Amino acid sequence: MRTEGHPVRTDRRRGTPGGGGRPGALPGRHPAAHGACHAADNAITFAAGTVLGPAVLTGGFSIHHVRPAAGRTLVARASVVHGGRRQAVCRSDLYVADETGTESLCAVAQGTVLSAQK
Predict the structure, then answer these.
(1) pLDDT at 61
(2) Predicted model pTM
(3) Mean of the per-residue pLDDT values for the chain?
(4) How far apart are CA 72 and CA 41, in angstroms?
(5) 17 falls within a domain
(6) Phi, psi at 110, each rounded to 5°
(7) Which domain holds residue 98?
(8) How far lies 79's CA from each of 17, 46, 70, 98, 113, in Å?
(9) 24 in any annotated domain
(10) What is the 3-state secondary structure (H, E, C) of 26-84?
């Protein structure tokens, strides 16, 4: 199996990706998907910081990829769904922009962020 030019090995017993076929690659990590996860987590954390302050920690996080993150620029936009004293629930939409600036949705994420203040 190949994914965006990178060979991917699959564990046939479990159907899970492993190693990416690259020396030193982490099991189950595809560069585009991994980058989208980082962008979503950062956007969610910054959004939560607007209601909780600068000392925050990600408590939980989920992301659903709706199409490959293939484009020129990855854009993450996040908003606070609910903000309390100790935690905030945020969502993030990730888009890829092409050379003309046209954006296409590629992933949707949600996370719970906790205040690190005692």
Answers:
(1) 93
(2) 0.71
(3) 80
(4) 20
(5) no
(6) -140, 145
(7) 30-115
(8) 32, 9, 24, 24, 12
(9) no
(10) CCCCCHHHHHHHHHHHHHHHHHHHHHHCCCEEEEEEEEEECCCCCCCEEEEEEEEEEEC
